[in-house]
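Hi both,

Apologies for the delay on this - the queue was longer than expected. I finally got the adenosine-5'-triphosphate-bound model through. Below you'll find the protein sequence and the ligand SMILES exactly as submitted, and right after that the structure tokens for the full complex including the ligand.
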Amino acid sequence: MSYRCFGATNCCKGDTTTTTNNNNPGQTKAQEIATDNVKLFSYNSLRSATRNFHPSNRIGAGGFGIVYKGVLRDGTLVAVKSLSVESKQGKDGFVTEIRVISNIKHPNLLELIGCCVEDNNRILIYEYMENNSLSTALLGSKGKHIAMGWATRAAICLGIANGLAFLHEEAEPHVVHRDIKASNVLLDGNLQPKIGDFGLAKLFPDNVTHLSTRVAGTIGYLAPEYALLGQLTKKADIYSFGVLVLEIISGRSSSKVAFGEDLLVLVEWTWKLWKEERPLDIVDPELTEYPEKEVMRFMKVALFCTQAAANQRPNMKQVVKMLSKDVNLNDKAITEPGVYRTHTSKHSGGGSSVETSSSHKNKSKQSLDVPANSIYFDSSEEMLPR
Ligand SMILES: Nc1ncnc2c1ncn2[C@@H]1O[C@H](COP(=O)(O)OP(=O)(O)OP(=O)(O)O)[C@@H](O)[C@H]1O
Ligand SMILES: [Mg+2]
């Protein structure tokens, strides 16, 4: 194992005596982290990189704290995520995030360059992504909006699918992300997507269904079984991925926009249009030209992913195949989506109480078995290997 020290005191390679200080929890953590191949930064080096965390360097803020743009001494641009120290939950998430990310590398996963664990400071240093998040670029206000044609959107969907498939199937140990959403997809200079934020991710051994103690995802992306019952499986990520694909097709945010008189959420709206046999009505009006057959295929994949019955959803490897191959998908196998929502709707009598239901009772047959690959494909299509 190796690590490099960037101006931090007491934590350089081989200096185990200075990193071991049981009276100082920060130092103990530094030693643990050092064994995970993470570069350690001093607080001072990050202060100069971000011009003393100057407000004009601020690029965003989320549940863990503020994100700043920084320039390292060698000129490398970085995103510096400073954890708000008051949050105990945040600290735990920080340590988890470091351990998980440090050894997981994939072109569609945001690289964690290093961290700072000096005194009370808990800071993550990521590669800087020039085009910000998918949320800002695709769903954000006009000033920051980036026009994207279908080819770009399709490549983004496939890139996210590849990154998530890697987390689910290849990473050791396998990882459930728990907060797949547009703001956790960052875009590089070529609009290639990278999934960020593993702070909510948990180590996930094969064939184990976790029951989480708290729901960590974001409203608008939450699989109903996770939101209501706390059942955390890869299938909850796959649900969120399906929602994300619908956002990319429609250019609309699932957590902000309500559709029609009934204030339907994006998934419900898509399902309504699907039943009315006019699914392409959800397509972003900004997309003046697009290949209808391919967009339909992506929409079907999204609908497979957001089905109420978690065990009917495909796994991410199947999703990657469905998105990347020009195959005919089996419409008839798609069952109704599950929805968890909190906003006011006519369904909830106009009150402001939390509505926590699967908006459409799932009348479809629910098999306890994981569906074979063939269920997603027209019978004429080649069967996929498992
Ligand atoms: N590596 C990065 N490069 C460029 N911008 C980034 C990077 N990481 C984060 N950002 C920007 O900072 C914003 C905040 O990110 P952050 O992950 O803290 O919050 P969030 O994703 O909105 O919510 P959550 O805390 O639930 O993940 C992002 O939406 C994005 O605009
Ligand atoms: Mg985030």
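Main takeaway for now: The longest helix spans residues 150-170.

I'll put the files on the shared drive as well.

H.
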